[in-house]
Amino acid sequence: MITSLHLGNFKAFAKSQNIPVKPITLIFGANSSGKSSIIHSLTLMHEAMRTGELDQFRTELGGSSIDLGGFRQYIYRRQANLRMKWGVSLETGRMTGRLKEILEPVDDITLDIAIGMPLDDHDQPIAGSKPNVISYELESQGETLLRMSRRPENMMALDMLPYKHPVIRRLVTALLESFTTTGSVTEKDIQDLEEPIAEIIARLRGPMGTFFPKGIKDKSLDEEAKQKLNFFPVSRGTRQEDLAKAVRFFLPRALDELIQELNSVVYAEIKRLQYLGPLRSYPPRHIAFADHDDINWHAGGGYAWDVVRRNKEVRDKVNKWQNDDKKLSTPYEMSIRNLLTLDDIDADYEEIIEQIERAFVDEDYDRLGGSNEDDIGGDLFGTLYGVLSEIRNKEADLVSIQELVLFDRRTDTQVSHRDVGIGVSQVLPVLVSAYGSKNKIIAIEQPEIHLHPALQAELGDVFIESALSDNNTFLLETHSEHLILRILRRIRETSEGELEEGAIPITPDQVSVLYVQPDNKGSQVLHIPVNKEGEFDRPWPHGFFAERARELF
To answer: What is the structure's pLDDT at 450?
Structure first.
């Protein structure tokens, strides 16, 4: 549902950048150009929505892979008096219910917020203060639809509500035609409502939530009347006044509904985010005992091994990929081994107890320090008997522990992931992110790391299948020429009807290729359009992976 991100005054970016997002979004650029900043901004927003805290250092998703350093560090050039801009554009056609009805006149809507420190009279951050959401704005078709800004006591006030905007016009028209006796609303009616709407703007306030305003209210409305009135009569002689009265009553509630429902949609979208960092970690030799509380459990990819251990469907897909002669082509196959099962416990308890009894009858209790069977020997026998009885009684409660192991099919021997090439450990979390996810936003830094060129290309098909079959959105920060070439090839083959058997068709509108270009005035995100021939529609900045040409020619 997200069609683009908006980012300004964050890390490498100064001027607000529009970042188109498609099912497969590839982010290229030189080292330290700001590629990863796009992904890091999403983890910041995910954490802020989760905790309500904007002065973030580490995030739950990012683990130790992302250290934002707090607001004064991630704001552009560490100028703490600047406002960070962040926003998302959403496709309205996929929305549901009342929100879809309200936004029917437009194809998309953008929610933008500005984040900053409270400033003193000299525009400097107030000592000891923390960053807050300063403004909240809805836009569509390049025009502001609604704007709120921060006021004292953690309140947000409505500053702007252009009544001529298609969404506001439709909203006002629908309200008047549904909740008054007027048959239809004319253009003159809308124009006559300019002053009442201006009065509404002056009165509307909303408390700030953890990240977005908690809706919007007109405190001047009598609460008792607010509950009783639900329909307004409109007389011919007082039409303008009657319509204005209805708008004053119903429009605040409709705006409140719009804000709250749209906020919920954005929350739900950001909650879909998954992140995999550039350095995948080795889990312990025994995966069944891995530390799930490790801060890098997700960012480092440790969780992926546990997914493979528990999920047979994902395990089968990973095995197929790594065994395929055209892909990873390893001799290893992942399977499950039970470390402990009830079948392992086959002791005859009665026979064991009889043996213990015979041993005690023959025992020299004086040597044990006692004088008869009722002393130390008897106590020892009772203890052993009790332990064995307890094990027998709890036998049905024993649960098997399943361990993930690798079998070398050449020698039919068991090996550990610790004993095989590093490529397996680095690519497995990438495969699990793709094969084990549905309806997710999956951000991966350098998915191609430690893979040879042919495998980097094969990952292109993995991402295409996962994005278009399982409704995932990929944000891939990469340096891989081979990855983009495979995707371009599939676009061309789709257009020409020459796809290989099993390949998923893909079109240019499902791919976003971005190039982050550094500049002394802040990095810029350049969109490189792709056509149906699998070619770029604009020159690649500084040439497309020009190193190859320089080395060859």
So the answer is: 86
- Could you tell me which residue, 59 or 391, shows the higher pLDDT? 59
Q: Domain containing 475 — which CATH number?
A: 3.40.50.300
Q: Write the CA distances from 264 to 60, 85, 111, 160, 251, integer angstroms.
A: 21, 20, 12, 22, 20
Same domain, yes or no: 331 and 419: yes
Query: Are 292 and 194 within one domain?
Result: no
CB 541 within 8 A of CB 515: yes
Buried b vs exposed e over 67-97: b needs ≥16 C-beta within 10 Å? ebeebeebbbeeebebbbbbbbbbebeebee
Per-residue confidence (pLDDT) for residue 368, from 0 to 100: 45
DSSP 58-110: B-TTTGGG-B---HHHHBGGG-TTS-EEEEEEEEGGG--HHHHHHTTT-SEEE
23 φ, ψ to 5°? -50, -35
For the record, the structure tokens of 550 come out as 């320089």
**Residue 392 domain boundaries:** 346-397
Q: Is 147 domain-assigned?
A: yes
Q: Are 225 and 332 part of one and the same domain?
A: no
* Domain edge (last residue) among 255, 271, 287: 271
Please tell me the predicted confidence (pLDDT) of residue 220. 73
Q: Say what the pLDDT of residue 461 is.
A: 95
- Counting DSSP H helices and E strands in the chain, the numbers are 17, 18
What b/e sequence results for 15-42 when a residue is b if at least 16 CB atoms lie within 10 Å of its CB, and e otherwise? ebbebbbbbbbbbbbeeebbbbbbbbbb
Same domain, 185 and 304: no
Q: Are 328 and 318 in contact (CB under 8 A)?
A: no
Query: What pLDDT digit, counting tens, does each position of 183-198 carry?
Result: 889 989 999 999 988 9
Q: Are residues 429 and 310 in the same domain?
A: yes
Q: Could you say which DSSP state residue 4 is in?
A: E
What would the two tokens of residue 210 be? 């953890």
Does the structure show a pLDDT above 80 at 350?
Answer: no
Number of domain units in the chain:
3
Nearest to 533 by CA among 486, 482, 491, 481: 491
Q: With contact defined as beta carbons under 8 Å apart, do 312 and 318 qualify?
A: no
Say what angle helices 349-362 and 376-393 make with each other, to 10 degrees: 180
Positive or negative: CA dihedral 330, 336, 340, 342: negative
Q: How confident is the model at residue 213 (pLDDT cuts 50, 70, 90)?
A: very high
- 370 within some domain: yes
**Which residues partner with 112 through β-bridges?**
87, 137
Same domain for 212 and 122?
Answer: yes
CA angle 24, 30, 35 (to 5 degrees): 45
**Predicted local distance difference test score (pLDDT) of residue 224:** 47
Residue 236 tokens read as 């011919």
Considering only CA atoms, give the Rg of the chain.
32
Tell me the whole-structure pTM to 2 decimals. Answer: 0.85
